[in-house]
Write a structure and sequence with these properties.
The complex is a heterodimer of chains A (267) and B (248).
Chain A (H helix, E strand, L loop, with lengths): L4 H25 L3 H20 L4 H22 L4 H22 L7 H6 L7 H20 L1 H9 L1 H6 L4 H23 L4 H14 L4 H26 L3 H27 L1
Helix pairs in contact in A: 1-6, 1-9, 1-10, 1-11, 2-3, 2-4, 2-9, 2-10, 3-4, 3-9, 6-9, 7-9, 10-11, 10-12, 11-12
Chain B lengths: L6 E12 L2 E12 L3 E5 L6 H9 L6 E6 L4 E4 L13 H5 L7 H10 L15 H14 L4 E5 L7 H17 L3 E5 L3 H7 L2 E5 L3 E5 L1 H6 L1 H7 L16 E3 L5 E3 L1
Parallel strand pairs in B: 3-7, 3-8, 5-6, 6-7
Antiparallel strand pairs in B: 1-2, 1-4, 8-9, 10-11
The chains are: A mainly alpha (267), B alpha/beta (248).
Chain lengths: 267, 248
């Protein structure tokens, strides 16, 4: 059944959507959109490292993204630069270094467009295993740190005062972000991964009144985006990543109608 | 002040500095089971900072903190909650500890806001939110309650009722309370131990001891009894802008 490239892409995308749903909610709640972007940009460097040393792409991206995240945390502690400047610095310098390294790798034919925007043809059975096993692990860890992470998202001092150790939860969450980027890079591409995290969660915010509902709708939104996006990418011969993100945008716009409706109901 | 088995948290000569400026220095105090310790002092005197040292929110502090409990309920002075989160009162109640539905209702009833259970937290008034904060802190039946201006924004009759509730909780749960308050009436009637801060401990003791204390008299005076909120500090020393202490 996994012989067909389209089935493989669909199974991979569904696996990714299950993980980006809840993680995306935290990205929106904790205002980490640009942090996600920075990790995703640094993923290019991870990919080039993988090619250079003939290493698994997902693992290589995970390592490089984690290192970049650690560097960011150190820079935040030791410099007086604002957070967004540090994020921009790391995002663009790691992207640039990644592209420079590609220039040196003349012996490899590089599908740079596939890397930036995702390529459904590239998904192998091996990738499926990484996505589903890695995804299950990410969700398991997220469930374990849910309480301290959520409490500190609402209010850091309450979480710290009442003994939930929010700093540890934050560090683990950072690693989970690097992990989801690593496993989803082939599907969505590094420029659009953050979109997959944010847009379904933003759509879910429009139609939810509790955190649990928002997570649920965010997963459903992500699943629909993957299914609609991949089918239209097959139909219109468009790149997989942009098609998925466009589908999620359409869902977001539909969710705005719901807001309009509830405002009218209140009036 | 010897440590005994009733001690919940103990500060020894604790201090905290931020950007090379001491926010508070040389604070020693102890909260025991069933006792209410109140911190008083003017704005910027380090009351909240002292509470945060005791709670472990500030990690790089001076001196020593000994904590003998992990069951802590905290009402911060300022709570800024980000409204990108869809959060109802009920969700907020179980933020740091899972509770049974009855326990949630009971705590919300005690502070008089059970009718708000399914309301969005962002739609509450200041006083309502304050009551929810207090309900959340007591709902987990803590051993130590740290209340930083817990009745701010609550209407006058509600204020008295809430202070009575706090006193009742300390007796029923036998929990220790570290209270930060501007309201001297309450401080004097319900407290076991008063600590007057102004960047350091100006005076401390039982309410009657403190009331007899010259520094306290200088602080709050007879006139101040009528105009409690605008008390002046007249000490044998003044504080420079850098927080240093200069003798008169």
């Amino acid at each position: 059944m996994f012989d067909d490239f389209f089935i493989r892409a669909l199974v991979a995308g569904i696996g990714v959507a299950f993980v980006t749903g809840p993680l995306g909610c935290f990205v929106v709640w904790r205002r980490l959109s640009y942090f996600g972007d920075t990790l995703a940009h640094s993923a290019l460097l991870g990919v080039t490292m993988a090619y250079s040393f003939e290493f698994n792409i997902a693992i290589s991206v995970f390592i490089i993204s984690s290192v970049i995240a650690l560097i960011l945390i150190q820079l935040q502690r030791k410099t007086n630069l604002p957070g967004d400047a540090l994020l921009g610095l790391l995002a663009h310098s790691s992207l640039a270094v990644g592209l420079v390294v590609i220039g040196f790798l003349t012996f490899i034919r590089f599908d740079i467009m596939g890397l930036l925007f995702g390529d459904i043809l590239a998904v192998t059975v091996n990738d499926l295993i990484i996505i589903w096993a890695g995804g299950a692990l990410i969700l398991l860890v997220l469930k374990l740190i849910w309480k301290p992470l959520f409490a500190s998202t609402v209010n850091y001092e309450l979480a710290e005062a009442e003994g939930l150790n929010p700093d540890r939860a934050k560090a683990i969450f950072t690693i989970l972000m690097a992990a989801i980027i690593a496993i989803s890079i082939k599907m969505v591409g590094l420029l659009l991964i953050t979109g997959m995290l944010i847009i379904p969660a933003a759509m879910a915010r429009n139609i939810s009144d509790t955190p649990q509902k928002m997570v649920l709708f965010s997963i459903i939104g992500g699943l629909l985006s993957v299914i609609i996006g991949l089918f239209s990418s097959l139909e219109f011969n468009t790149a997989s990543g942009p098609s998925i993100i466009t589908a999620s945008l359409v869902l977001f716009i539909l969710s705005l109608l719901k807001i309009k409706q509830s405002i009218q109901l209140k009036n | 002040m010897g440590t005994n088995s009733n001690t919940l948290v103990k500060l020894k000569n604790a201090g905290y500095q931020q950007n090379d400026k001491w926010l508070v220095k040389g604070v020693s105090l102890e909260v025991e089971k069933g006792k209410i310790v109140t911190l008083i002092g003017p704005n910027g005197s380090g009351k909240s900072t002292t509470a945060k040292i005791a709670l472990g929110i500030y990690k790089k502090f001076d001196g020593e903190v000994e904590k003998y409990t992990n069951k802590i309920g905290y009402v911060p002075q300022k709570v800024s909650i980000d409204w990108t989160l869809p959060l109802r009162v009920r969700d907020f109640m179980v933020l740091t500890e899972s509770l049974k539905e009855e326990a949630i209702d009971e705590a919300l009833s005690l502070t008089g806001v059970v009718h708000l259970k399914h309301k969005n937290l962002g739609n509450l008034s200041g006083g309502e939110f304050q009551r929810v904060l207090l309900a959340r802190a007591i709902s987990k039946k803590p051993e130590l309650l740290v209340l930083d201006e817990p009745v701010q924004g609550v209407d006058f009759t509600g204020e008295i009722a809430l202070y009575e509730l706090i006193k009742k909780i300390s007796e029923e749960l036998n929990c220790g309370i570290l209270l930060i308050s501007h309201d001297l009436h309450t401080v004097m009637s319900a407290t076991d131990h008063v600590v007057c801060l102004n960047g350091h401990v100006c005076c401390s003791g039982s309410p009657s001891d403190v009331a007899k204390n010259n520094e306290y008299k200088a602080l709050f005076g007879e006139q101040a009894a009528q105009t409690l909120s605008i008390y002046e500090h007249n000490h044998d020393h003044v504080h420079s802008n850098e927080g240093e202490i200069k003798k008169n």
